[in-house]
Specification:
Blueprint (H helix, E strand, L loop, with lengths): L10 H24 L8 H4 L34 H6 L9 E4 L2 E4 L2 E5 L2 E6 L7 E6 L12 E4 L9 E6 L8 E5 L4 E6 L6 E9 L7 E10 L4 E2 L2 E2 L6 H13 L7 E11 L8 E10 L5 E10 L2 E8 L19 H20 L6 E10 L4 E9 L7 E10 L2 E7 L4 E4 L4 E4 L1
Parallel strand pairs: 3-11
Antiparallel strand pairs: 1-2, 1-11, 3-4, 4-5, 5-7, 6-9, 7-8, 9-10, 10-11, 12-13, 14-15, 15-16, 16-17, 18-19, 19-20, 20-21, 22-23
């Protein structure tokens, strides 16, 4: 069975292709073994991607034809003495420099989906950030690879993005560089989901932004390890892979079209029990679209599907870990409102699906009163609607009091209920 696929696709489509190849390999593994092919691995997938060389050098005046690598059948890159001579030395100190005229020290770094990110700060809201988008195959960790640009950046050279925040600015400003920069980037070998490396980068902006030194990047996101998906990776892409695999294995004719995946999320790694959620809209054989909701949990270090929900069920009404008295009021009120709302919809509209659900809670410990507003649609392109539920915190804890009227509103400054 041959796959004649174009690779001008989004990430969702690429994950779907990975799943299809896995299913083909499982279903047709014996056939390929009989044909002497040794089975399928993810080298088959990476053949679809137009991978660029991992080293970009200044053009040499003359070069001899490269010798073929007998093991891989791929020609080895010629050595460029000029590029090595021009490459700046990298200090064996933690990476630092200046970005957009401001001092820059790499306090955290990560590598995900082929992008290396160096940050001043510990999280995604860092004030200064350097992103290097590498020309590596999707979901590959570039362990042991080197990137050098010491002359005109050729095809496949990394793209560089600077991001910084001005005083009083919420969203960061960005500047992109695709040429006329100098880069030496060398990665070591992965250990304990960290990738050490060293960098020397000089950019052609007005203030000559630069960074040089060593770093240790956290390995994040969905990835392929030894030809298999790494189901330990904390990423929405991992949840997509599991959901697509579950759907596509029930479609032997491969007529399924994944229309969209929505609301992918997972609890953070410091949570005692990591859980996740994803909604998938799909169509089989040109039929009407359907919705399947998936709940995930991380068990034994790997993500797996824990439960599937129908289109008229809500993740918030069927949590894998039911909120208790020790949980926050927001979490408990959302759960209670979702249970009531789901039951009401199933009773009033047994054949309807619930689209784009959302919950907003507000409460007052002083007046022991709370509200959870539910937003939803009953058709994909239908009217957005709202239902609000009133809660009271009595001796037994928070409990549903009633549904609020459309013209009713709670005043949390006084604890009273009045008209809008």
């Amino acid at each position: 069975m041959a796959l004649n696929l174009k690779m001008n696709l989004d990430k969702k489509s690429l994950i779907q292709i990975v799943v299809l190849v896995v299913l083909i390999a499982v279903g047709a593994g014996a056939y390929f073994m009989q044909q002497g092919g040794g089975g399928l691995d993810f080298g088959f997938i990476t053949g679809f991607f137009e991978s660029k060389p991992t080293t970009t050098r200044a053009p040499a005046a003359k070069s001899q034809a490269p010798a073929a690598d007998r093991k891989s059948g791929i020609a080895s890159a010629p050595v460029d003495v000029k590029a090595k001579a021009d490459a700046p030395a990298i200090p064996a100190l933690p990476a630092k420099g200046q970005i957009h005229g401001k001092p820059f020290v790499v306090e955290s770094s990560s590598i995900e989906n082929g992008t290396l990110t160096l940050r001043l700060g510990k999280d995604a809201s860092a004030d200064l950030e350097v992103r290097l988008m590498l020309s590596t195959p999707p979901w590959e960790v570039p362990a042991g690879k080197n990137f050098k640009v010491t002359g005109p950046a050729g095809t496949g050279a990394p793209q560089i993005v600077l991001a910084w925040k001005e005083d009083g600015q919420n969203a960061p400003s960005e500047q992109k560089f695709t040429d006329k920069y100098t880069l030496v980037l060398e990665f070591g070998q992965e250990k304990d989901k960290k990738l050490p490396g060293k960098i020397s980068l000089s950019l052609p902006d007005e203030v000559k932004s630069n960074v040089a030194g060593t770093f240790e990047a956290d390995i994040k996101g969905f990835r392929i390890v030894n030809g298999k998906p790494d189901l330990a990776a904390d990423s929405v892409d991992t949840l997509q892979y599991l959901a697509f695999h579950e759907l596509l294995k029930g479609d032997p004719s491969n007529t399924m079209d994944i229309i969209a995946s929505r609301d992918g999320r997972y609890t953070q790694p410091d949570s005692p029990n990591m859980t996740g959620y994803l909604e998938v809209e799909y169509r089989v054989g040109g039929g009407t679209s359907q919705i399947q909701r998936y709940q995930f949990e991380k068990d034994g270090g790997s993500w797996k599907i824990a439960k599937t929900l129908n289109a008229n069920q809500l993740d918030e009404a069927h949590p894998l870990h039911v909120p208790g008295p020790k949980d926050t009021p927001a979490k408990l009120l959302t759960y209670l409102a979702a249970k009531k709302f789901e039951a009401d919809i199933q009773k009033k509209y047994p054949k309807k699906s619930i689209y784009e659900p959302g919950f907003t809670t507000q409460f007052s410990d002083k007046f022991k009163i709370g509200v959870c507003e539910t937003r939803y649609k009953l058709e994909p392109a239908g009217e957005a609607m709202k239902t609000a539920y009133l809660f009271r915190n009595r001796a037994g804890g928070w409990a549903l009091d009633r549904e609020l009227g459309k013209n009713e509103k709670v005043n949390f400054d006084t604890g009273s209920i009045g008209k809008r």
